[in-house]
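C-alpha cells incoming
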C-alpha cells in the first residue's frame, strides 16, 4: 500500500484526544456552561465524557500496547486557571502525571494548550475578541511550560482557529457582534453572565476580523512564552484544512473560502516550527453554494461524502503555502462501520507516503481519535474512535482500525529504525 518508502525513523504515529471531549466534568469551562443553557446548540451535555481524567493511566497504556508511538492530548485551561490569575498546582500535577505515563510507555506527548474550551471567566471578559486575551493566554502558556515543559514532545498552541470560519459556511455560529442578541444561545449566555450579547465570543464560534487578530496574536504570544522556557521545543498551531474544491459555477466561492479558511491561516503559520493539519474530507462549492454528497456515494455519520484523498491535497497545500514542516495532527472518520474506517486510514496514510516520497517534510500522522467521545454540538452520536467505549461501565474495546493502524505504526517505526541502524 505505502510501497517500500520508509517513513523517517522519528515519524510520529499516534492518536489524539482533546480534554473536554474525553475527561468529563470540565465544569469551569465555557463549553460546559453553554451546554447547559436554554437554547443550547449542543445536542447533549458532555457529562462524564469517557472519564479519561481518572482513567488516563490505563488509556495511555492501551494506546502504547496497540503499537502507537505518540499521544496527542490537550491540557485544560479551565482546570489549570479556574479563576483569572489563580493557577492550580494540583491540576498542573495531574497533567504532569499524564506526561510521565506517556514517557513510561515510550509515547512522545504532543500537547495542545488550547483545544476549543476556555475558562468560563474568559467568556465574561470578552472571550476571543478581547484585546487582553493574547496576554492572558501567554501567561497561561508560560505557567504550563514552566511546570510541564521538560516532558512535552511537541507543543500546539491553539487548535483550529480557522474552524469558526469554516463552520460559518455551514451556518453554525460566526454571527457578527451586532446580531448576537438575536441568537437564543448567545442571548441566554449574556443574560446569565450579566454582559452584553455582542461581547459573547467563544473560540469555536467566533468568526470575525477582531477574533482573527486576537487568535493570531494569542498564538504568537503563546509561542513566544513557550519558547522563552524551552527554545528548542517544536511549537505550532493546528488548522482545520478541508480540501476545498469547486463544481460548475462554484469557483468564485470556493476561491474565497480557500483564501479565508485555509490560505490566510497557512500564511500566518510561516515562521512557526510546524503546522498541524487536520483534515476529514473535501468541501465542494457549486452554483448553489455548498454541494451535498453525490448520489449513491458512501457517507459518514454527518451525511458527508467519505473522501480520504483529501489529506494528501491539504498536506501539499500546507507545504506549498506555509513552507514549513507539516504534522498531520488529526485525520479520521465518523462511522459505525469500522471496516470503512480501516479503508479510509489506508488511503490517507498512502497519501502521506506519497507526499514524503515527493520530499515534503511530514513529521507525523496522528489519527482522530483514540476513543469514541463527545463530538461537540453533535454530542456522543458520531463515532470517530479507534477504541469503543461503553459509557455506562467505561469499558474500552479496541476496534479493528486501532489494531490496523497500531500495527502499521509498529511495523513502520521498526522498519525505519532498522534502516537507520543499517546505515550507521
Ligand atoms: C476537532 C476535534 C473534532 C474533530 C471531528 C476537529 O475539528 O479538532 O475536536 O472532534 O475535528 O469533528
Amino acid at each position: 500500500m505505502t510501497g517500500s518508502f520508509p517513513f523517517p525513523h522519528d515519524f510520529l504515529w499516534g492518536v489524539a484526544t482533546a480534554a473536554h471531549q474525553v475527561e468529563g466534568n470540565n465544569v469551569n469551562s465555557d463549553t460546559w456552561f453553554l451546554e447547559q443553557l436554554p437554547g443550547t446548540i449542543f445536542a447533549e451535555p458532555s457529562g462524564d465524557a469517557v472519564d479519561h481524567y481518572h482513567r488516563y493511566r490505563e488509556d495511555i497504556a492501551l494506546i502504547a500496547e496497540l503499537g502507537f508511538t505518540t499521544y496527542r492530548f490537550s491540557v485544560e485551561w479551565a482546570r489549570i486557571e479556574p479563576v483569572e490569575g489563580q493557577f492550580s498546582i494540583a491540576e498542573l500535577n495531574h497533567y504532569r502525571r499524564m506526561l510521565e505515563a506517556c514517557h513510561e510507555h515510550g509515547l512522545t506527548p504532543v500537547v495542545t494548550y488550547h483545544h476549543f474550551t476556555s475558562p468560563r471567566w474568559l467568556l465574561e471578559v470578552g472571550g476571543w475578541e478581547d484585546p487582553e486575551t493574547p496576554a492572558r493566554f501567554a501567561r497561561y502558556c508560560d505557567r504550563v511550560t514552566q511546570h510541564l515543559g521538560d516532558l512535552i514532545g511537541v507543543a500546539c498552541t491553539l487548535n483550529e482557529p480557522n474552524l469558526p470560519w469554516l463552520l460559518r459556511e455551514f451556518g453554525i455560529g460566526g454571527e457578527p457582534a451586532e446580531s448576537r442578541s438575536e441568537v437564543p444561545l448567545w442571548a441566554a449566555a449574556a443574560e446569565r453572565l450579566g454582559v452584553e450579547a455582542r461581547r459573547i465570543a467563544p473560540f469555536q464560534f467566533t468568526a470575525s476580523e477582531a477574533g482573527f487578530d486576537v487568535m493570531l496574536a494569542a498564538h504568537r504570544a503563546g509561542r513566544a512564552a513557550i519558547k522563552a522556557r524551552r527554545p528548542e521545543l517544536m511549537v505550532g498551531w493546528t488548522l482545520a484544512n478541508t480540501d476545498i474544491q469547486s463544481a460548475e459555477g462554484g469557483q468564485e466561492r470556493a476561491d474565497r473560502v480557500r483564501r479565508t479558511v485555509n490560505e490566510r491561516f497557512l500564511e500566518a503559520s510561516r515562521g512557526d516550527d510546524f503546522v498541524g493539519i487536520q483534515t476529514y474530507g473535501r468541501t465542494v462549492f457549486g452554483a448553489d453554494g455548498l454541494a451535498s454528497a453525490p448520489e449513491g456515494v458512501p457517507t459518514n455519520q454527518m451525511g458527508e461524502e467519505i473522501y480520504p484523498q483529501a489529506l494528501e491535497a491539504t498536506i501539499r497545500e500546507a507545504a506549498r503555502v506555509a513552507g514549513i514542516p507539516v504534522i498531520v495532527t488529526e485525520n479520521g472518520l465518523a462511522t459505525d462501520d469500522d471496516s470503512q474506517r480501516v479503508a479510509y486510514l489506508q488511503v490517507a496514510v498512502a497519501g502521506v507516503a506519497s507526499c514524503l516520497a515527493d520530499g515534503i517534510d511530514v513529521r507525523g500522522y496522528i489519527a482522530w481519535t483514540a476513543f469514541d467521545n463527545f463530538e461537540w454540538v453533535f454530542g456522543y452520536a458520531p463515532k470517530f474512535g479507534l477504541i469503543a467505549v461503553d459509557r455506562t461501565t467505561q469499558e474500552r474495546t479496541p476496534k479493528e482500525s486501532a489494531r490496523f493502524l497500531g500495527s502499521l505504526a509498529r511495523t513502520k517505526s521498526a522498519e525505519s529504525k532498522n534502516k537507520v541502524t543499517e546505515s550507521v
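note: Residues 117 and 292 are 30 Å apart (CA to CA).
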